[in-house]
Amino acid sequence: MAFTKENRLQKKHKVMKKKSDPRHKIRVETVKNLFSKTFNENLKLDGALQASLVLKHQKEIDKIISKNAPAWPLNQISPVDLATLRLAIWELIFKDKKEPYKVVIDEAVEIAKEYGAKTSAGFINGVLGTIVKSNESYKNHLK
């Protein structure tokens, strides 16, 4: 069978991620843990390795958020959006084994659509897009 444009599109749509993907589940669980930690600083994150790794870089991540979303002080960003941004920025910049930046952004937007407000997905996409576009040093890390 020849690969026509239609065949490539069909193939592309068949391999798209699903909510049952273990990586998606880990990301959702990490966002939930980060969200919970927002309300209970003494919360122990036993078994939540990824959330603990994100929290180790929280000050640096929060500075990146503040720089790239200057109209939104951290205390005005919803806790779900903040948790989603923190995870995505950790994945983009601090995680040792990096995913392609488009995957990280897409996952963050999907989580925002599922758990955030109506405007969350656009906000998160905008902040992460700004980080990727405006920072050459990040671009080298994000490939």
Give a brief description:
The protein is mainly alpha-helical and 143 residues long. It has helices at 5-14, 22-39, 49-56, 58-68, 79-94, 101-115, 120-134, 136-142.
| Number of contiguous helices | 8
Q: How does the helix and strand content classify structurally?
A: mainly alpha
N/C terminus separation:
33 Å
| Spans of at least 5 consecutive residues with low confidence | 5-16
Query: Any idea what the CATH architecture is?
Result: Orthogonal Bundle
Strand content range = under 5%
CATH homologous superfamily, by name?
A: NusB-like
Shape: globular
Largest sheet: none
CATH topology tier name: N-utilizing Substance Protein B Homolog, Chain A
CATH class: Mainly Alpha
Oligomer: single chain
Write down the overall mean pLDDT: 85
- Count of extended strands: 0
